[in-house]
């Protein structure tokens, strides 16, 4: 029996990027044919798995997207394509409202017009802003504090309203802090000029940066540095495959789910883990707080655990760091 031929192809936008390339691998491993659509603005052609079909282009190009949907019999879209740098969204908000909001609207419209029944969206914990209490639940207020978070929240709203009006269901996955790399070394984060803590710190550990800035040591946390819920990109990719299966099984239901482990690590704990892994201390430079950073942000993940058969398998900080380091070494 050929498992692959039984499953319809999935359109993965942003599949040449960090998280999308891991999701493409997870889909292929589970027997789903994958069509990657990416304009390579921040992604890499080499990150697209060999077993996937690649189309270079923009998610707002309705003729291109429509052709892919019709030619490949697409029944589900996983939408990772977007702009992801929070400080840049403050400096250039219209770029974010264009690439994340307006272009998502165009993609959703193409999906609806061609009857694509399922849509999975990369949302973010940034939709919560600075929550009053942690761990944060999906039904708590969404008050984003930057254009990036607002650009993503608006797309969640468009999906909610569209699913109420048209025969399409969706799953918005709100990622917490994504880190690590494919355990088999097939993909990882190659982003140029990355700002994410674990990526920056493994670059420093391997001598690609002088030091790591610790942004703020006076937060209301046990050691004074910011606390975040780091989720391994492999577990996150697996959650997408489960979400797809759930949308197909329950076509009348849509979901908004936190993707995190429900526990946090401080900046210093992350740097300690990397020091342990390399047996060499990274140079730390204590700096002022970065604007807009909450003290602590962790996920209440009971909804995803109740809704999907997803279970974390790589939820260990040392594992996340080891895989991030292994990928960073391969980039040399
Ligand atoms: N990295 C994180 O910690 C994190 C956290 C929460 C949410 N997210 C979301 O996850 C998604 C993927 O993020 P990532 O970290 O993999 O970023 P990334 O930059 O590595 O990937 C984004 C990909 O989308 C492509 N792209 C951008 N605009 C496009 C367009 N208009 N048409 C076609 N392709 C386009 C880029 O070339 C790139 O390959 C984003 O939507 C992001 O907002 C990421
Ligand atoms: O060089 C650095 C980078 C970060 N940090 C701190 O490390 C923590 C994590 O920061 P970072 O890795 O930049 O992630 P966040 O700012 O928490 O935001 C990420 O996680 C969000 C979800 O929570 C996503 O929406 C965003 O896209 C993504 O940038 C924060 O306390 C930062 O202040 C440092 O101290 N030094």
TrEMBL record:
<protein>
    <recommendedName>
        <fullName>UDP-glucose 4-epimerase</fullName>
        <ecNumber>5.1.3.2</ecNumber>
    </recommendedName>
</protein>
<comment type="pathway">
    <text>Carbohydrate metabolism; galactose metabolism.</text>
</comment>
<keyword id="KW-0520">NAD</keyword>
<keyword id="KW-0413">Isomerase</keyword>
<dbReference type="InterPro" id="IPR036291">
    <property type="entry name" value="NAD(P)-bd_dom_sf"/>
</dbReference>
<dbReference type="GO" id="GO:0033499">
    <property type="term" value="P:galactose catabolic process via UDP-galactose, Leloir pathway"/>
</dbReference>
<dbReference type="GO" id="GO:0003978">
    <property type="term" value="F:UDP-glucose 4-epimerase activity"/>
</dbReference>
<dbReference type="Pfam" id="PF01370">
    <property type="entry name" value="Epimerase"/>
</dbReference>
<comment type="similarity">
    <text>Belongs to the NAD(P)-dependent epimerase/dehydratase family.</text>
</comment>
<dbReference type="InterPro" id="IPR001509">
    <property type="entry name" value="Epimerase_deHydtase"/>
</dbReference>
<keyword id="KW-0119">Carbohydrate metabolism</keyword>
<feature type="domain" description="NAD-dependent epimerase/dehydratase">
    <location>
        <begin position="10"/>
        <end position="250"/>
    </location>
</feature>
<comment type="subunit">
    <text>Homodimer.</text>
</comment>
<dbReference type="InterPro" id="IPR005886">
    <property type="entry name" value="UDP_G4E"/>
</dbReference>
């Amino acid at each position: 029996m050929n498992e692959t031929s039984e499953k319809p192809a999935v359109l993965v936008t942003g599949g040449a990027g960090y998280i999308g390339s891991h999701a493409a691998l997870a889909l292929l491993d589970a027997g789903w044919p994958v069509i990657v659509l990416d304009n390579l603005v921040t992604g890499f052609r080499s990150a697209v798995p060999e077993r996937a079909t690649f189309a270079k282009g923009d998610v707002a190009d309705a003729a291109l997207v429509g052709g892919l949907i019709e030619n490949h019999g697409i029944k589900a879209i996983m939408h990772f394509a977007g702009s992801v740098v929070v400080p840049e969204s403050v400096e250039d908000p219209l770029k974010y409202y264009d690439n994340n909001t307006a272009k998502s609207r165009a993609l959703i419209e193409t999906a609806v017009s061609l009857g694509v029944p399922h849509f999975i969206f990369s949302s973010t914990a940034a939709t919560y802003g600075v929550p009053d209490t942690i761990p944060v639940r999906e039904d708590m207020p969404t008050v984003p504090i930057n254009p990036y978070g607002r650009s993503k929240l608006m797309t969640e709203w468009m999906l909610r309203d569209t699913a109420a009006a048209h025969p399409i269901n969706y799953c918005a996955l709100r990622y917490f802090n994504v880190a690590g790399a494919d355990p088999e070394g097939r993909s990882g984060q190659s982003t140029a000029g990355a700002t994410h803590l674990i990526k920056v710190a493994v670059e420093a550990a391997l001598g690609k940066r002088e030091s790591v800035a610790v942004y703020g040591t006076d937060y209301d946390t046990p050691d004074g540095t910011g606390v975040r819920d780091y989720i391994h990109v492999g577990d996150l990719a697996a959650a997408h495959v489960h979400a797809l299966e759930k949308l197909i099984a329950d076509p009348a239901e849509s979901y908004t789910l936190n993707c995190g482990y429900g526990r946090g690590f401080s900046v210093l704990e992350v740097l300690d883990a990397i020091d342990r892994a390399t047996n060499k201390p990274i140079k730390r430079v204590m700096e002022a707080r970065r604007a807009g950073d909450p003290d602590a942000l962790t996920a209440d993940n009971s909804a995803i655990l109740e809704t999907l058969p997803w279970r974390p398998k790589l939820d260990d900080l040392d594992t996340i760091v080891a895989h991030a380091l292994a990928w960073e070494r391969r980039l040399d």
